[in-house]
Structures are given as structure tokens and as C-alpha cells.
Design a protein that fits this description.
Strand content: 35-45%
Number of domains: 1
Number of helices: 1
Shape: globular
CATH class: Mainly Beta
Radius of gyration: 13 Å
Largest sheet: 6 strands, mixed
Helix content: under 10%
Distance between the termini: 33 Å
CATH topology: Ribosomal Protein L25, Chain P
Length: 89
């Protein structure tokens, strides 16, 4: 799949920082490839955080992406920092 603007929403904004939410059937490794979020380059700023639900059609995961670069319309996010990696009980 690819980035879909309808699946990106603002959760909070303050002091030049935005906390976003994004949901997708794509896996995290696809999303953290440079360029995945290029269509949102006018909105995303370095330092913004994206709370994400990924692989929603498979084994869903949740986590955080940090926008690490945005230059010339090319956006890059760091690897997913997964939340709730295991359920042992």
C-alpha cells in the first residue's frame, strides 16, 4: 500500500510540535522507508511524533515514529518504537 492522507490526523499541537496519529495496513518497515510520508511534507516537521497502528490487516502493532528529516519534500521517520511488544499473560 501507500500513504493515505485520510489516515493521518492531529492529536495535539503546541509550541511548534505536533502529535499525530496514523493507521495503516502497511508494516512498520515500509513506513520507515524514506519517502513514505512525502505527500505530507508540508505538514510534518522534524521532531514531530506519529503514534501509529500498523499492519492492521495482519498482526497489528502500535508504536511511535519520530520525524527525523524533512527537506525538499522528502520525509524520513525513525524506526518504529513499539508499544506493548509482548503479552505474556
Amino acid at each position: 500500500m501507500a500513504y493515505l492522507s485520510k489516515d493521518l490526523s492531529v492529536l495535539a499541537y503546541a509550541n511548534g510540535f505536533t502529535l499525530w496519529h496514523y493507521t495503516t495496513a502497511d508494516v512498520a518497515n515500509t513506513m520507515d522507508t524514506e519517502g513514505y510520508f512525502n505527500a505530507a511534507s508540508t505538514m510534518l516537521r522534524v521532531g514531530d511524533i506519529i503514534v501509529a497502528n500498523v499492519d492492521t490487516a495482519g498482526t497489528m502493532k502500535g508504536g511511535l515514529f519520530l520525524v527525523s528529516a524533512n527537506s525538499g519534500g522528502v520525509v524520513d521517520v525513525n524506526d518504529l518504537t513499539q508499544i506493548g511488544a509482548a503479552d505474556s499473560r
